[in-house]
Amino acid sequence: MSYPPQGQGQHQQGGHAPAPAHQPGPVATGSGANMKRRNPVGAWLGLPIITFGIYGLVWFYKVHNELYRYDRRVGDSALNALLSMLFGFITFGIWPLVMWIKLGGRIRQAQRAAGLPASCSTGVGFLLGIIGFGVLYYQIQLNKVVDRYGGTPPDQHVSLVA
Predict the structure, then answer these.
(1) pLDDT at 11 over 50
(2) Phi/psi of residue 77, each to 5°?
C-alpha cells in the first residue's frame, strides 16, 4: 500500500487538522400530515370570548385530531378528548385533567418526532391550565413543531425523525 508523498493530496495549512466530516442530520423514519399554525393568543383568548367558550372545545378536538394525523403512533383520541370535556362532570372533573396532561405528552412526542428537543412540560401545562393559560402554553409548543417545517401548508406530508 502506498501513501501519497508528503505535501501532495493534503491541504493542511498552518498545521491545522482537517475539518471533521459533516455528520448527516436526523434520518426520516416516517411521515405524517403537518399541523395548522394558530395564533396562540387568538386560540387562548380571542376566539373563546367571541364564541362564548365553544372554540375551546373545538380547539381541544382539532389539536388532538391534528396530532394523530401528524404521528399515528400517539393514538386517535380526538373524540375521547372532546367527550372528556363535555361529560367530565361525571368523573368530578378528573378525566378532563387526565386528558389535559396527556395532551402535554402528545405534544412532547410530536416535538421529538419533528427532531426538536422536547420542551413541552406536562407539569407546566397542567398548572397553567388550572389558572387559565394552558391553551396559550400548549399552542406555543405546538407552533414550534409547525415552524420546524417552514412554510409547509397544513395537511401536507412531512417527514418524522423520531
Answers:
(1) no
(2) -125, 20
**Taking CA 17 as the corner, what is the angle to CA 15 and CA 18, rounded to the nearest 5 degrees?**
125
Q: What is the mean pLDDT of residues 158-162?
A: 90
Residue 157's DSSP bridge partners are 33
Secondary structure of residue 150 in the 3-state scheme: coil
Take residue 142 and report the three cell numbers written for it.
Answer: 405546538
- What type of residue is 84? S
Q: Is the pLDDT of residue 118 over 70?
A: yes
Phi first, then psi, for residue 51 (nearest 5°) are -100, 15
Cell numbers that stand for 155 in this block: 395537511
Crossing angle of helices 78-86/94-113, nearest 10°?
Answer: 150
Which amino acid is present at 156? Q
